[in-house]
Amino acid sequence: MPELPEVETIRLQLKKFLVEKKITGIEIKKSKSFPNDSKLVIGAKVIDVRRFGKVCVIDLDNKYSLLVHLKLTGQLLVNGIIGPHTRVIINFDSDNLIFNDLRIFGWIKVVKTDEAENSGFIGKLGPEPFRDLTFDLFKQALEKTTRPIKIILMDQEKISGVGNIYANDALWLAKINPKTPANQLSNQLTNQLFDAILKVLKDGIKYGGASDQHYLKPDGTRGEYQKHFLVYGRKGELCERSTCQKEGAKITRIAVGGRGTFYCPNCQK
DNA sequence: CCCCAGCCCTGGTCGC
DNA sequence: TGCGACCAGGGCTGGG
User: Fold this and answer.
1) Are residues A152 and A117 in the same domain?
2) Is A109 a catalytic residue?
3) A201 bridge partner residues
4) What whole-number distance in Å separates Cα of residue A228 and Cα of residue A216?
5) pTM of structure
6) A268 in a domain, yes or no?
7) What is the mean pLDDT of each run of 10 residues along chain A (269 residues)?
8) Are residues A141 and A255 in the same domain?
9) Within 7 Å: CB of A102 and strand C?
10) CA A65 – C1' B13 distance (Å)?
11) Does any strand C atom come closer than 7 Å to the Cβ of A69?
12) Shortest CA–C1' contact from A258: which nucleotide?
């Protein structure tokens, strides 16, 4: 599922492939995937590609932008192959951009560029890691609530861009139990968690995202972060910490807030 | 305001 | 072999 590292990887490739390219036509196969009037952007040229949390913003030279949210199963492929899950095809002079989305949760919306940052939930997003998330802001987000820390990490209004994969891995790295009430974390653990979030997101970007299930980069290649998962998706495997290995401690899967949660009960107390 | 349950979707998996 | 039930989950909505 595309989270900050995946969407950032997509952004960098789209910027390379699409800037200066002109939209010549849009074919909408599912209106739910592209609910606005495509005429608003036909003939416009791409000038920039930005990212807010998990949303990709493609800015055009006619004061409009395309917002893309891939949700769980969305893919943006440059010159990809049209398949059974292709929902939208954006044609450029000599290339096309294919939006595949098996579960039809994702969308592409047309907004005015100067309203993009405030449109819909982008305006409600919390501080962005690597941009404006500071330790003090992070601490403030945690101290107001007794909800489980994992829920808070994934709450886009608290911190933007962190989803299930990176929340699980960050909590393991910081040795924190996912169910710990957010306001009960000590200053030291809060510090460890802050560093851990930045570390796993950075690794995610370094490996081009996690191609665990559907995610592909726009050039059609797979990311590599799934080969470096710390706990995510590793139910039943031995925890990587040497002390846990000696004791045979295994990664467990539980539900927190209804979401699949992976952790080591031995080192994440 | 805060929080939670239910909803949207479809392919894969499991039990009978 | 086939069929139905169930599950995955980001963000939205409605209710307490």
Assistant:
1) no
2) no
3) none
4) 17
5) 0.94
6) no
7) 92 96 96 93 97 94 95 93 92 95 92 86 90 93 91 92 93 94 94 96 94 90 92 91 94 88 93
8) yes
9) no
10) 40
11) yes
12) C9
